[in-house]
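User: Fold both of these, please.

Assistant: Here is the first one.
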Amino acid sequence: MRPVVSYHQSTMIDYIKNIINNSPTVGVVLGSGLNKLTDSLENIIRIPYKDIPSFIQTTVKGHAGEFVYGTVKGTSLPVICANGRFHYYEGLDYSSVHIIIDIFNQLGCKNVITTNSSGCLVPEWSPGEIMIIDSHIDMTFRDGPDQINKKKGDSYYDPSMMRIAESCMEHIGVPARKGTYGWTLGPTYETPAEVRFLQEYGISAVGMSTVPEIERAHELNLRLLSLACLTNYAVGISSEPLTHEEVVEQANKSGELFTELLSRILVQIDQI
């Protein structure tokens, strides 16, 4: 399905197409502190958001604000990464929050990988581990208290891409965690009481992004894999205070492992 493209969005897409001169196969959204993948690509072209006509600018630390186009090392697979995403709490409307997915779609991407830095709600898991998101719940209550509804299944998360991710995690020796992601509005972190509430709904990781992108990819029938880097325990599970700077720092520490995983996944996506 190709949605109607607004004048401004069409201008943005034409600008990017004129620079990259090729259609990427995979679009990757990089979460807070998870931008090291771009350094591992070859034939890199960087497109700052500020140079794209009418495009939104990032305001959150850890989100550089650029598209990075290149090929995966050792392959001819063309990839475009969004190094910086948008959040509802930045004062944007919902369609602006998922605009990166619209751009990926219009550029010709058939496969999308979203990544994020999340708080871990499972005491038996460890910060630094990676979770494959296999379901999600919108916990923002934007549409009232009756909106809680777990969404899962093949129509959201591509089974073949999830199997590839599991296989790659096993190969590099990290636990293949799978679970439910909960989207909260932010920008403040959850209280211990809110964390207990989220746990009652079976949520394994919590964050302030990603779900609008998942929903948009679903609407556009794009194949999706979504990964959460568990940068910290949610408040109440750990007694340590939490700041955004610490989240970005932990994501940076996990960057090499995350980059290796993503690179292996991309190579195998090229073969399916």
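And the second sequence with its predicted structure:
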Amino acid sequence: MADLKGKTLFITGASRGIGLAIGKRAAADGANVVIAAKTAEPHAKLPGTIYTAAEEIEAAGGTALPLIVDVREEGLVEDAMAKAAGTFGGIDILVNNASAISLTGTLQTPMKRYDLMHQINVRGTYLCSQKAIPYLKEADNPHVLNLSPPLNFEAHWFSPHVAYSMAKYGMSLCVLGMAEEFKKDGIAFNALWPRTAIATAAMDLIGGPDVQKNCRKVEIMADAAHVILTKPSREFTGNFCVDDETLASVGVTDLSKYRFEGVEEKDLLPDFFV
């Protein structure tokens, strides 16, 4: 089975949650992981900083490079990419994980919140992809993976939170367009989205601390990402993947290890957009 040993991953928003889990799974193969996130000091409500994440990456078997990066700032992104490539000799994989969320209706969404979601989700993904592409063109099996949903345009996925849905679908539109634009360069662009809610600190803020019993563990997304990122980039691009389907494609159909103790499959909350 292919692995990520010696590969360099640049992961946005990797100080916690799904981004960190993807980094730790790659680290277990012996990968280099660039933790590109804003959290340098502990957050009042969200655990983890780029430095605690780096410790977890190293403990998992990888080499970590924690960098303070706001994906809204072009100069910071450019500098971080250059630092990553200079440190590890290139960039093989970009994971656009950084995201902002507000599950609010049109009249309840201040423009400041609208702007934040679009600056981080859409513009941040576009910017990081743009700045990574020159490095990815030099890599052996280059991948970009966006944590964004399938392009399902049913109205009920938009009406409760139009601004958030627009911002997440913008990330997926990057996959749709860039996969075709850079096919000749052999750079894969794919999206990954969970079937169910995933237990993260951000999820706790949205649904309260008890919501985790209705979620799968972050490791399901990390394992699914690993499947995608080890595929030949010239053969697997432009896909909108769902975690359980991705694992099933490689023969993993027993997902019980991704549930918390005492939780049944029927108890899991379905995620948006699928």
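The chain has a mean pLDDT of 96.
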